[in-house]
Amino acid sequence: MTDKKIWFITGASRGLGVDIARAALAAGHAVVATGRDPAKVAAAIGSHADLLSVKLDVTRLGDAQAAVEAAIAKFGRIDVLVNNAGNFYAGFFEELSPEQVRNQIETLLFGPMNVTRAVLPMMRKQRSGLLLTISSTAGIAGGMFCTAYAAAKFGVEGWMESLAPELAPFGIRTMLVEPGFFRTELLTAGSTTFAEPNIDDYAERTRETVAAWSSMSGKQGGDPAKLADAIVRLAALEEPPARFAAGADAVQTFEAKANALLAQAGAHRGLSTSLAHDDRGQQ
């Protein structure tokens, strides 16, 4: 294997976070695995000499700073940050409450920002590191019932893409992972909150969508253990990819969005390119 790295993983009490922690440990790395209940984190991953379980609610900057301090006290550095913690508020925009939308963005966008803010001073000091953020195909292409979730994930995409050139001079890299449908716990009752139906115009589509997604839970095509292994392999590269389309469905989403953008750019090209000031003749 390559040099031993120190991984810091959020949302590691269940789902993909557990698989990433196990894959990193199996590859010979050390892992700081975090969650709101560190006992659940340790129980989910299993005992390991190179594992440190730490309490972390990503919506609390103080928690993030304390968890990073604990990681540095134990291992001396942090080489790979995996922003993985997440949840899902699903529903039509008019039926999602303002509080639900804010909570979604708090967890999925401001949460990773809190943890990254706490980690960056260490990475700048050591002049190396990888910020790896789990996004979603919903961060590439929006979809019905995903207004709050996609808003947060689109925010993650823009934030990480903009952060990359800021940090490159310090030897710090960024990587976005956009999974399609994987057999994680995202669609379970513990992770998904459906908006309360209260508008008749949406009622039929709400029933159909909730039934379809609920029936899909536990039957998604993607294998999270394989994704975790792929993430560990990509993180070891000298130049990790800026984005990784995770799953055949994710590749299709990337290609469809790219083609749609090209078509939209060309649809009114003449009008788009005719909007400059005409300064000829002005003194």
Give a summary of the structure in a few sentences.
The chain has 283 residues and is an alpha/beta fold. The protein has helices at 16-26, 38-45, 61-75, 98-126, 147-167, 200-216, 224-235, 248-267, 269-272, and strands at 6-9, 30-35, 51-55, 80-83, 88-90, 129-134, 172-179, 192-194, 243-246. The chain is built from nine helices and nine strands.
Explain the overall architecture.
The protein is an alpha/beta fold and 283 residues long. It has 9 helices and 9 strands. The protein has helices at residues 16-26, 38-45, 61-75, 98-126, 147-167, 200-216, 224-235, 248-267, 269-272; strands at 6-9, 30-35, 51-55, 80-83, 88-90, 129-134, 172-179, 192-194, 243-246. The strands form 2 sheets. It has a 7-stranded parallel beta sheet, sandwiched between helices. The chain has a two-stranded parallel sheet with strand order 5-8. Strand 6, helix 5 (147-167) and strand 7 form a beta-alpha-beta unit. Helix 1 (16-26) crosses helix 7, helix 3 packs parallel to helix 4 (98-126) and helix 4 runs parallel beside helix 5. The radius of gyration is 21 Å and the shape is globular. The chain starts with 5 loop residues before the first strand and ends in an 11-residue tail after the last helix.
